[in-house]
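#structure-requests
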Amino acid sequence: MHTDSEQLLVEVDKDQIAYLVGLFEAYGDFAVVRTLDPGRGLVELLCSPDYLPDIRALLEDLKKEINVRTFPGSAR
């Protein structure tokens, strides 16, 4: 069992932040979402390393609906 967490930085259009937050809230304990810069649409996802592959897959699917950019180097 992991005791650490992973940080994944994500950028979306600023009007899509609430949608992203709502989506992750619907998944329950998938990730904690923090808005770092609302003007830029910069959001931080904190998650267990166990959930990281599922979160990455969810973000890839989400790219079909909205502009989503993940930053290299986040979530090692």
